[in-house]
Amino acid sequence: MSGQSQDGFTPTGTIATTADRRRVVFATVVGTTVEWYDFFIYATAVGLVFGQLFFEPLGANSALIAFATVGVSFLFRPLGAFLAGHYGDKLGRKTVLMWTLILMGAATALIGILPTYETIGITAPILLVLLRIIQGISAGGEWGGAVLMAVEHAPKAKRGIFGASPQIGVPLGLLLASGVMALMTAIAPGDQFLQWGWRVPFLLSVVLILVGYYVRRKVEESPVFMELAERKEKASMPIVQLFRKHLLLVIIAAFVFAGNNAVGYMTTGGYIQGYATNPEGPIGLERGPVLVAVAGSAVTWLLTTLLAGWLSDRIGRRTTYILGWVMQLVGVFTLFPLVNTGEIGLLFAGLAILTIGLGFTYGPQAALYAELFPASIRFSGVSISYAIGAIAGGAFAPTIATAIVQATGSTQAVTWYLAGMTGLGLVATLLLRDRSGIPLGPDHEEEQSVSPVRGLARA
């Protein structure tokens, strides 16, 4: 039966219709877009206003402290991944996804009504960090569930392109966050943006969450989980089994994502936005044009992410990744020379070139991760690998970049840091076998338990 479910059958033996699959893809895209909009709107605001409104009274390093709060949330992603992985493998993917959406939306909306340092003093940054932590817990649980809902519903030959649907939620979230912020800089320019304009994108989250919740309610549970539930084969302690049998695999898979995430967080973490618009920095561009350029690069990121997912179904996940690492390295070395020209068109070109590699090292990730882990612990495996990779990669990438520039007065060392992270991702990819098309259902746990790490026979 599990072989059938991998090719479009439900556990009861009926064929999943094209409409069913479209509904899954649509719900996955909408849900992850809303989640990442909420997550990225914070990072965008850090680069533009939070340092001034919440952290400036704390001293000369207010910008560094503000960017550090972006990274703090990543430290709590593993908690979200542990909770979501445990309950996702026991209660289902859909249940977890509903709760992560609500949690993220509530935290984001509360940031939109939070008083600033000028009003309530040190309590303001403390509450801001606490709400960012809640966002981190939600993000830690969201990705794994969205990935498995997409990939486990997909026909075997189309897992790459189906798996790209939750992945495009990231560039769509960035596009939406940057676009809304850019719109508000036009509606509420100058001091008005500092006074109230920045709050509107956070409050908009309430509407987006309602839409995402409605769409996700219409989607059926993952067929793989339904099979596990019918057979009563769900792991009692999935996280314990994961670390006992697959620890090395989790670490290597985490490094694959870290190589992408560190580079991606130059924009999703708000660094480029803050660097390019800093009035005391070397460029000093206006907020609006920079946000539009970032939004434009999100479009190229979206397109290359979809292309990479589609291509991975034809040439394999591993080969697609290797091509992506090469292109990402090219993007890393062209980014700052173009950004530092101070020309908005060249800044956009630098970001667009970078997103080609980012798309190719992100599009295949959902299918790659889903095919690495056995069915009974798959939610735990993909969620925790992702969360650890996020800490090693993007968590403090903006903070590190800010500290490097402050210490050296140049972005050259930032380029080498990003190149090193890209190399780490390439090495991790080379350590994995390609498992494109491996059966995902519970009938094939023995085959799935053969380690995909080169040189190891079994997990």
From TrEMBL:
Transmembrane segments: 61-84, 96-114, 126-151, 172-190, 196-215, 247-268, 288-308, 320-338, 344-363, 384-408, 414-432
Keyword Coiled coil included in the entry's annotation: no
Subcellular location(s) of the protein: Cell membrane
Coiled-coil positions: none
UniProt entry keywords in alphabetical sequence: Cell membrane, Membrane, Transmembrane, Transmembrane helix, Transport
Annotated membrane topology: Multi-pass membrane protein
One Gene Ontology term, aspect cellular component: plasma membrane
Major facilitator superfamily (MFS) profile domain location: 24-437
InterPro entries reported in the protein's UniProt record: MFS, MFS_dom, MFS_trans_sf, Sugar_transporter_CS
Main location: membrane
Molecular-function annotations in GO: transmembrane transporter activity
Name listed for the protein in its UniProt record: Inner membrane metabolite transport protein YhjE
Species of provenance: Microbacterium foliorum
Gene name for this UniProt entry: yhjE_3
